[in-house]
Amino acid sequence: MSERDGRTPVMADVARLAGVSHQTVSRVLNGHPNVRTETVVRVRAAIEELGYRRNPSARALVTRRTNLLGVLAFDSTLFGPARTLAAIENAAREAGYFVSIVNLDGITREAVVEAATYLVEQSVEGCIAIAPQRAVVEALADLSGLRPLVAVEGGEGSGLPVVCVDQEGGAYTATRHLLDLGHRTVHHIAGKRDWLEGEARVEGWRRALAEAGAPVPEPAYGDWSPRSGYELGLRLAGERARGAEVTAVFVANDQMSIGVLRAFHEHGIGVPGDVSVVGFDDIPEAEYLTPALTTVWQDFDQVGRASIDVLLAELSDGGGPSALRPPVTRHRPGAAASRRGGTPSTDASGAVSSVRVVVPARMRIRHSTAPRLPGPP
Amino acid sequence: MSERDGRTPVMADVARLAGVSHQTVSRVLNGHPNVRTETVVRVRAAIEELGYRRNPSARALVTRRTNLLGVLAFDSTLFGPARTLAAIENAAREAGYFVSIVNLDGITREAVVEAATYLVEQSVEGCIAIAPQRAVVEALADLSGLRPLVAVEGGEGSGLPVVCVDQEGGAYTATRHLLDLGHRTVHHIAGKRDWLEGEARVEGWRRALAEAGAPVPEPAYGDWSPRSGYELGLRLAGERARGAEVTAVFVANDQMSIGVLRAFHEHGIGVPGDVSVVGFDDIPEAEYLTPALTTVWQDFDQVGRASIDVLLAELSDGGGPSALRPPVTRHRPGAAASRRGGTPSTDASGAVSSVRVVVPARMRIRHSTAPRLPGPP
DNA sequence: ACCTCAGATGTTAGCGCTAACAATGTTGCC
DNA sequence: GGCAACATTGTTAGCGCTAACATCTGAGGT
Q1: Does residue A274 contact residue A183 with C-beta atoms inside 8 Å?
Q2: What is the DSSP string of A22-40?
Q3: Would you report the helix, strand and coil content of chain B in percent, each value rounded to 5?
Q4: How far apart are CA A296 and CA A197, in angstroms?
Q5: Within 13 Å, how many C-alpha atoms sit on residue B111's CB side?
Q6: What's the rounded Cα separation, in Å, for the pair B313 and B310?
Q7: Strand C contact at CB of residue B20, distance < 7 A
């Protein structure tokens, strides 16, 4: 199987073998309508015989389309980001796009710029950033070279289209659940400061307490790690030992919850006997911890799908200073997902485009919370 | 900043602005020696002013180098694969390569073929497969279109270069540790059948027992999930209740260990009081479980670095039926990492090339194991 | 002054593909 | 039968870049 002795066959080789012009081969490959069935068959056979594959670089050069999407990730080792990343990759592939990823080293502005440069140099057509921190989103918003860009878990006000889980709602539900159990108030071990997800969870927790007229304890900020959960759990156990009323804790993620559970255990505080605990993420381990952890499940797959949908919609809306805007029309126009949530989505005319897709979070109730008799401790 | 009204600037625009030919611009960009410093400065300034970026497609078309590496992953949500993936991405970026990832949907042969096709269509220069299962490695070995290819956690006999963690050694050490504590034997809850990592861990466990002349109980096979750990833990607890001597368990990963811990807890079996448990992976949670889990740590970062090193070495060795073999010499020749482990690495002449890089695993001893008085139960 | 040679630059010819247009053959309709 | 409309194919011209070769300088040796 070799014209051009040994070299990868090119379109002209296929054409020669099929007895047509290279352009006809191109037409077959691109599914143009006006090619005789018999010709199509012959060309297909030639392609098969030579094991021919189109050269994507040549194609990209002339079509001005790379078919490549970039994904910016920050610590894709954490459960949430890892799941999101996988979901995005899947959705992109289904939409016929390739995916190139960059993991940010740090959360500095320079790291963001560096990563963005890296993607731009690959001529990505668009980009999705798993950007859980305010600083990152801001840096991204400033970087006008990387467009269109969808921020996952992005937060409002950046001007970027955003897809996120309803963190606030999830936190609200979790807190509400604890209050409904009879707890007078709920403590909160929060995520890392400056992380948007963490802040949203604080918001939801606060709103539930405020609505119920419950006292609002000072939240304790961790860094998402089991270690920090453990440390803050120890602190809470100490407060309790000194007489503070600590009967329910909403922890901003499951990993920290594990540390909290450990700290309480060391102090002889029973869960859910003495204190109820609710986590966030629903990691696979949650159900099998001792006690099984009540937690909040997030629909990462939908986040992945929605972010691709939004990105593709931005892409087909055209406009924007992207380097790769093609002259031809785009595929799947208007494929943007259901836009929900109480945020201003001024997108009817495609003008301001503060797109914001909110994906649900749902409680998974397990044995780490128990009903509590009303009355002072 | 626009020649060519609004369109992305090309090399010719830079050339015009700098008052040189486009070829001189190319030379500056590629660091050719014979360009006057003054010219370099002028060109650089023009590039800066126009915000010019090379078109990678055009470049790839003529150089026949895409600078792209493909990574095939299977369930990159699990801790190990996620860490490995991140490490590979980092190492690739440091080596100046882009990375495109595909997540396999299933472990069927078709899924492998599909993913491979997907990567070939992108003209990756080489590929790394995180291929933890025998079936996948075999499918990969048959697929001659995707070369060079490095199998991470690949197992022997496939003919592919392999980078892997010393699973067998880690398992041996873990089992040995339990035996040294005074246990007469060690039970094993194994990983999913057909997973090479799981099999290697069974091997190591078996070797330690055999060496010590300890009885070898039938291993119980799980599927890496906390749920399966729980189920098999219940079974073990049942056996123990019926009088079997179960005092030590080596579990093939930490996630299953969590399920085991839960099962034992439900049955009133104390860990490490009644039974010692050792896991594998050293997930961040391990230290904060109750009890803290003794486990085996794997150097994923080194796996990532080594796999890129090996791939780059294969790339520069030339040969192989890759579609993209460039006519020019490659960078970083002979960068392959330390080759260790007791496997036949017939690579001196670059001939058979059964490269096998083994990366260390180390025990992390914590409170889930305790010394045991000798004697029958 | 002549020639040589290397340094610095420009010119030309593709890489493999698709878009645009041109050139056929084919059908249908009055 | 003639002509328009269409279906089918081929031809040509780039996309933006690098490699190879061609050209032009000026320094150095004799």
Answers
A1: no
A2: HHHHHHHHTT-S-S-HHHH
A3: 40, 15, 45
A4: 13
A5: 15
A6: 5
A7: yes
> Lowest-confidence range among A129-138, A264-273, B248-257?
A129-138
| Least trusted range by pLDDT, from B223-227, B244-248, B349-353 | B349-353
The alpha-carbon radius of gyration of chain B (Å, integer) is: 26
On strand D, nucleotides with any atom < 7 Å from a protein CB are 7-12, 14-20
Give B213's DSSP letter: T
Strand D contact set, beta carbon < 7 A = A 19-24, 27, 33-36, 38-39, 58, 61-62; B 7-8, 10-12, 22-23, 25-26, 29-30, 54-55, 58-59, 61-63, 328
Of B351 and A303, which is predicted with more confidence?
A303
Which amino acid is residue B292, in one-letter code?
A
- Rounded to the nearest angstrom, the gap between the alpha carbon of residue B95 and the centroid of all alpha carbons in its chain is 17
pLDDT band at residue A374 under the 50/70/90 scheme? low
Query: CB neighbours of B34 closer than 8 A, spacing ≥ 6?
Result: B27
Preferred mutation among B69, B231, B285, B298 to probe A, highest tally of A CBs within 10 A: B285
Which residues in chain B have their CB less than 8 angstroms from residue A51's CB?
145
Beta-bridged to residue B133, according to DSSP, are B195
Q: Are B355 and B336 in contact (CB under 8 A)?
A: yes
Cβ-defined contacts of B38-44 (< 8 Å, 24+):
B42/B18, B43/B14, B43/B18
Q: What confidence tens digit (pLDDT) does each residue in A349-360 have?
A: 444 457 889 999
**pLDDT, tens only, B89-120:** 999 999 989 999 898 877 888 889 888 888 98
State the Cα–Cα distance between residues B158 and B161, nearest whole angstrom.
Answer: 8
Cα angle, residue A184 at apex, residues A183 and A186 outer, rounded to 5°:
70
Q: Which nucleotide is nearest to B36 (CA to C1')?
A: C8
The first and second tokens of residue A278, run together, are 């609710």
pLDDT of res. A135: 86
Checking each nucleotide's C1' against the CA of B35, the nearest proves to be: C8
**Best of B55, B69, B288, B308 to mutate (most A CBs within 10 Å, chain A):** B288
Contact across the interface for A290 and B262, Cβ inside 8 Å:
yes
Residue B131: pLDDT band by 50, 70, 90 thresholds? confident
Sign of the Cα torsion B260, B264, B269, B271 reads: positive
Task: For strands A356-359 and A162-165, give the pairing.
Answer: parallel
Separation between the CA of A24 and the C1’ of D8 (whole angstroms) = 10
- Residue B374: is the preceding peptide bond cis (ω within 30°)? no
Q: Please name the residue of chain B whose CA is at the shortest distance from the CA of residue A265.
A: B290
Average pLDDT over residues A145-165: 86
User: Residue B102: which of A93, A284, A289 has the nearest Cβ?
Assistant: A93
Of B53, B76, B82, the CB nearest to A121: B53
Q: What share of chain A is helix, strand, coil (3-state, %, to 5)?
A: 40, 15, 45
Confidence of residue B6 (pLDDT cuts 50, 70, 90): low
pLDDT score of A321 more than 60: no
C-beta neighbour count of A148 within 10 angstroms: 26
Token couple for A24 = 């006809």
Asked if B121 lies within 8 A of A83 by C-beta distance, the reply is no
Rg (CA), chain A: 26
Q: What domains can you pick out in chain B, each with its CATH number?
A: 11-54 (1.10.260.40), 65-165+300-358 (3.40.50.2300), 167-298 (3.40.50.2300)
